[in-house]
């Protein structure tokens, strides 16, 4: 069974949507909307934007890390 979107009224009386995984776990929560219809439109917008969207993973840091062998080579260098 695929996941689903749920539209609900929060404690402040605003409408929100939340995508749920097939196991029922909430994956995210949408922003607050004044009306249920607006929350449904927001939900549909997210669904359209996500359809076929590629997934990506964070890029590795470009910060240089010195390996122990590089550190050892520098410390034994005879250059001034």
TrEMBL record:
Report the protein name in the record: Uncharacterized protein YegP (UPF0339 family)
Tell me which stretches of the chain form a coiled coil.
none
The residues covered by the DUF1508 domain are: 10-54
- Per UniProt, what is one Pfam family of this protein? DUF1508
Q: Which organism is it from?
A: Pseudonocardia cypriaca
Extract the PANTHER family matched here: PTHR40606, UPF0339 PROTEIN YEGP
Q: Which InterPro entries match?
A: DUF1508 (IPR010879), UPF0339_domain (IPR051141), YegP-like_sf (IPR036913)
Question: Region labeled Disordered — which residues?
Answer: 46-80
